[in-house]
Structure formats: structure tokens, C-alpha cells
Amino acid sequence: MIAARRVLETILFRTTFCFTILVFNIFTKSASADPDRFAVTIRSNSQVVNPATRDAMFFAMATGGGSKTSELNLQIELQYDLKLFAQSDNTSAIQFIIQSISVNGQTNYRGFDLSDFFTPDLVLGHIEFETDHGVYSRNFNEKFSVAEPVNLLSIDMQTNNEAPLIRKASIELLGFSDDAKKSFLTQIRLVDRYWATISLNDTVYRNILRYSIDDSDDISSLFVYFDLTAKVSRLGNELLADSRLRLRSNDPGKLADETDKISRMHLRLETLLKQQILKEKNHYDNADVFARKYVAYLERYRLLSELVSYSGSEQFYYAGRLLPTASFCQLLTYIDKTRFNGAAAQSIYRIMIRKGDSLTHEGNLAHALDYLNDAKDLSENIASIEVDRSVDLKIGKLKEGLLHSFILIATRTVSSDRPDLTQLYLEKAIDFKKEHLNLEQSINIESIIDPLIRAMTDKTKTLIYYGQNNEAIELNNKALHFINSFNAIPHYWPIIRQQLKTAHTGIYQDLLNTARDYYDKHNYQLSGEYAEYAYRYRIDHIDYLEDQRGVEQLQVQLRKPQISNLIGSGMNEMAHGNHSTALNAFDKANELRKAEGSVLDASLDSLRKTAIKNMIISSLRSVDLKIWANELEEASMVYDEAMEKTKEFGFHDDPDIKAAFRRMEEKLTDRICMNNRLEFEELLYRVKRSANQGKLEEVRKNLDRAEKISSLNPGCFINTSELMMLSDRFKDAFNFKDQYQLLYNRMFEIGFSAVVADYDRLDSLYSLLSTPNDVYRPTSLMDFLADQNNPSLSLTACSYFAGKNKAIAAIQCLKMFKKQGGTEKQTREIQLILARQTARLTLLEGIHEYRLKTVDDFVENDPWYKVFRQEFTKMRKLAGE
């Protein structure tokens, strides 16, 4: 282990946490750190923080998607860091940081990808750390996000001289919080609403076509479908505007097109309805018939919501609600005045109330409440309606009845041992209160809630009596949450708190008694573990267990036998060569002695030093395999750590440790020299291969690297004879390449005409090589002119060669000039000079290889060379005379 001060602001350990979700099970790969190198050990297992939450997520996905839970298979891979950092001068903290996350498998739900919603957001584990005052253990259970790191715990540094030493960190559980579950289920419902809206859209549109509503002259039918298309269009537009569905990039059911189609139909029906009203203006129809037909259609869609699948019921029920929007009220008022003499809206209001009363008598309180609320909303938006004052009273009674029914069911589930149903109806009651109740309503909340809380506290008392303390705590917490949500019956708070204290004390005492039983049986290891569990439980629930101190007394009793056991265990481990484990045991024994105020005796100190010495020697010997495997960086790290421990514990002059270091240094040096020789030989091979391929720069680069290796490692005795031979072989090639490159650079800076003489000189020098190098063949001046295809350059070169009396080279440039499109007029003077020079070459006293050659041997019979040919012939005649 390394001191925590060395890992401040550094990554302690990075691991990848993989788990596969397959039929409600999460499996994980284990990952662990090298305990001698890192300050933490990461462990993971196949448990889940909240299997009920996970199961609910998969059940929703399987049910709504029409698949089986056994067919679901998801793989989630997390890469995370644990990081220790200084929060302030007085505190340090351990952070949990997500580096990357990927989700693969069957994440598609009804055409939508839910990968983002399968990201775990809950981490649970345990950290053990050491400070100046001893070793401490802490549990953590924290929510986290991909975007931001989360502090798992803070450590008080005010009384410590150094940062804490992290002995062990375990990430034991990863899972989904209730918030993640709600987010997931919300997205599922959103997708279900999407498809339900498409189904509702299709139903309404088909009915319009089936009954020819868009060609009808019936005001009632036109008004009904005017209202329906408005609500369906509104539902579609709301979903299209919801960024969570990302419908701009993925619209599998073409909701945008369907919503546009129903919206256009809505405008058409509105136009037809107004036209029909104007046709028979001042002709009054029966308002009751109109109202009954409208309310019947509302009732029809409410009934349809009970027949369609659960996932689509909400949208169909919405279509059956009376929603008095501005456009609805404006058109209804216009129709009412022109065709019903102001009686239609009143009739709709009266029928809605009558329907609500009927459903109340049938015991269908939820639907009755919706009808009465719709009637009330209509009266509040149309001033001509004569209001029934009894509606508010009926609504209040219905709300009280619904709340009472939820609480009554919850009360019955408490006694029937169905905690899942209890939770369900408690949440229904809380949600109903938030949505429908306010402070102005005169409902006696306490009289409704009191029987439920009494039943919950009675049940808790029974659970505590039978030792079911965990279940008692869960039920008490539900009761507290419910009371706080309604802000009522505060007289139950002390009762519930006392029950919580009793239940927590029961759990604590069970752990403590188990620890004592193991102590009496002399099983001090298990006794110590259960004592630690009890201690941690007390710390985590200190509000209820502040006066419970029995575990501290037991821990004091455990120290002496634990010290003896640890020393014995350490000696046994040391005898088997497990020196690191032995040192841990001796250190724990030392910590326990410090905790009880004892001074470290010489024998334990000697054992610790022996273990440390053996651990240093063992670690140095363990690198043989790393050196053999050429893992020199890892071997160097072991060397550095061994050197640090040697300095820390004062083993500089120990002969055994000196010998171990010397042996490792020799092996490391031998391996480094072997690597250098192998690399040197590989570089020479690359030189030859690059030479065969004509890659001169690769040749130069590899020769330079080989020379560097040989010069930096004189003690490795590398044979450099072949290197010197190869360097000599390619010396001329490097020299000429550099000179030609310098020439090209100057050419582009000062122009071709200024360097043509140097170019010709370099070509001449290269041609003098006894064995021209096949690795580098420069571009000659003639080849350069041919490649450039520039008549100006060719003419410049021709003039240069003519001036140097190099007629043959000049004629070659002249021919190139002609081929590149140069004009004969530009060369007349040069042709005269070249004709005279070549004529002299052909005389008996000229150069042997050109003697007696004719004009046709130098230029073709072409009018372009007329000046040259005439002058050449003239010069030969003069010479003949």
C-alpha cells in the first residue's frame, strides 16, 4: 500500500464494471487492484440494490412491448474512477467518477431506443481507511450521475497530520434508484401515449369518413367532431413538442403527418359548421337533443378508454372530457344564440351534472368527479349558464369519498400483510391530495387518516414483538412520510419515533448479542466482524441509538485475544512466505495496541521489521518474471517501491537487502543490454531493407538511431563494425542528396538561371562516381527540364550550354524547347552559334566520335532548324575549301 498523501488529486483505481441483465438477473465481472500498488481494492458481485425496482422496469418494458421478460437481454458497461482529494484544509473526500458508460442489447421499446434510461444511478459500498487515530470503516449509499462526480464520504482531517490511508474500497452494488425507475416508467408511458394518440387519431378520422361527417349538414355531428378533432390535434402537438421523444429524428408512426391531417380536418369541420349555421339562421332546434348527442359522444369515448389496452386508455379518456377552451366556448356560444335560443350550453351543463349524480349513486366516484368538474369548468367559461350551487358541495363530497376509499384500502392491506398494496394506495392518496385538495376545502383530514396511522402503529408493535424489526422500520417510515405529506395528526410523531427507536435497538442488540456469542465461543474473528457491524449500524442510526454503547465495551474486550490471534496469524503467514499478509496482521495488532494505550513491545516491532524485510526481498525477487517478460516499466516500479520501503524502515545497510538489490540491478542491466542489442540489429536490418526499396531517408533515420544506441550504451559492448561499413556505403548518397536539396531550395528562392551552372556541375560530379549509388539517383538537369515542360527554362539552359561550348547538351535543350512550344524566332542567334560549334566537332581535328557526321545527325530536316542547317553547311564548305 502507498500513503494516501501520494494519491491526493490522483486516480486511485480505474475499473470497468460490466453486468448483463437477463430475465431479471444482473451478473457482474469482478475486478481487483494490485494491493501493493494501489491504495484500494475494487470488488463487485451479482447483487442488485433494488431488485423490485429493476423488476418493475423490465415488467413494464415486456408488457407494453408485447414480449416476454425471459427474452430481454441487456449489457451495461461502466468505467469509473475512485478519487481521493482535499476538499479543504480540514476535510478530504472520496469521489466516484463515471468515465464512460455503454448500453447494448434489446433497448428498443415500440420503435424508441431506451438506452439512456438503463443507466444505473445508485452506488453502494464500503470504505476502510486509516488515520492517525486508528482504522475506520464507513458504508456509503449514494446517487450519482454520468455528468457530475459524487462524494461518497468526507473524512475529517482537522486532527490528523497526514491524509488518510485508504486500506480498502469496495463498490458492492450498482443499481437503479426510485427516481431512475420513475424516469424510466415515465418514458414508457410517454411512448405508450404516442401510439395511443396515433390510434385515437385513426379512430376519429375513420369515423369521420365512415359517417361522411365532412359532408354532413347535421350541426350536432359537426360540433361533436369539431370538438374531437381539436382534442386529438392538441394531444398530437403536445407530443411533437415534447423533446423527450425526439420525434424530429425518429417518428415511427408518422405522428407529425397524422396530426397535420387531423388538424386540417378540424379546420374543415369548423368552416362547414359555420356555413351550416348561416344557412338556417334564426331557425331554432331542440337544445336537449343537441346536448344529449354531444354528452353521449363524450361518454362513448370514456367507455372506449376501458376497452382499449391500459397503455392507451388515458388518451381515449381525454377525448371523452369536456374541455371548455376559448375556441370551444366561442363556437358553442355562437351556435347557442343562432340555433338554440341560448338553451344548448345550459342543457349540456344540466346533463353533465345529472350524469355525475348517476355515477355517484353507482359508486363510480372517480368518473362522477370528472363529470362534475367538467360541468363546473363549463359554467365558469360561459357566462350565460345558470350555476347550480350544489355542484361545489357534491365535488367536495366526492373528493372526500375518493380519498377515504384510498385510505380505507390502505388500512385493510396493513392487516393483510400486503406491504406492496399498502405502498400503492398510500401513494394514490398522496397523489390525489396533491392534485385535488387544497386548504380551502373543509375536509376533516385527521378523522380520515387516524384509523390508517393507528393500524400502522399497531402492526408495527406486533412486528417488533415478533422480532421483525426491519419490517417494522419500513412500515414506520411509510407512516411518517404519509403524515408529513398531509401535515396532520402530529400526536402520532412521538409514538412512531419511539417505535423506530425500539426497532433499531432490536437490530443493534441482535448484532451485538451475536458478537458476544462468538466471543464466548472464542471465535474472535467472527466476534470482531459482528461487533464492527453493530458499531457501523449504531453510527448510521445514531439519532435512535445514541445511548447504546455496549459494542464499544465488547470491542475493548476483543482487543487482547484479537492481538494474540493477529500475531499468531501473521507468524503463520510469514512462515508460508505471505509476507504482505503477515505485515497487515502485525499492523492491525499494532493498531489495536495503540487503541488500548499500550506501548509497542520489542517483539512485535521485530516481527514487523522481519516481515517488511522479507516483503522487500520477495518483491525484488518477484520481478525476475517481469524482466524475463520484458515488462521493464513494471519492474522499475517494483524497484522504486522497494527502495522507498528500504529508506522508510532504515534497511540501507542490511546485507541481504543489498544483495537482493544488486542481483536485481544485474538482471535488469542484462535485459536492457539485450534489448539494446536486439534493437540495434533490427535497425541494421531495416537499413538494408530500406536501401533495397530505395528509401534513403529511412536508411538515414535508422542509421542515426543505431548510432545513438551504440553511443549511449557503451557498457553493452555492441559490435559496431557493420554499422561503420553501412555508414561509409551511404555517405556519398547522403552528401549528394543534401547538395541537390540545397540546390532546389536556392532555385526556388533566386531562380533557375542563377543555379543552372551549379546544377550542371553537380551532374558532372555525380557522373564521376566510380560506382553510382543505387539507393539515390538524383534528377539530372535534362530530366528536370523535361519534367517541368517549361520552354523558358529550356531556352535558359540552352543559352548556358552554348556559352560553355557544350554544343551537344545545348542542342538537346534546343530540341526540348521546340517540343515544348517555343518559337524558332527566339533561337536564331543560338542556332547560328550551335551550328558553328557542331561543324568544328565534325572536322578531322574535332572529337573522334563526331568526326565526319552530317547535319542530319544533329537536327532533323525541319524548317524550324533552317538557320542551323544553313550555317552548318556553310561552315563545312568553308572548311572544305
Short description:
The chain is an alpha+beta fold. Strands 2-1-3-4-9 form a five-stranded antiparallel sheet, with no helix packed on it.
Looking at this protein, list some descriptive labels.
881 residues, alpha+beta, 31 helices, disordered N terminus
What does it look like?
The protein is an alpha+beta fold and 881 residues long. It is 63% helix and 10% strand. The protein has a 5-stranded antiparallel β-sheet with strand order 2-1-3-4-9, with no helix packed on it. Strand 1 (10-22) and strand 2 (25-28) form a beta hairpin. Helix 14 (493-520) runs parallel beside helix 17 (550-575). It is flat and about 145 Å long.
Rg, alpha carbons: 48 Å
Amount of beta strand: 5-15%
- The number of strands is 10
Structural class: alpha+beta
Could you say which overall geometry the principal axes of the C-alpha atoms support?
A: flat
**Within the largest sheet, what's the order of strands?**
2-1-3-4-9
| Largest sheet data | 5 strands, antiparallel
Mean pLDDT across the residues is 80
Distance between the termini: 109 Å
**Low-pLDDT stretches:** 1-50
Amount of helix? 55-70%
Number of helices: 31
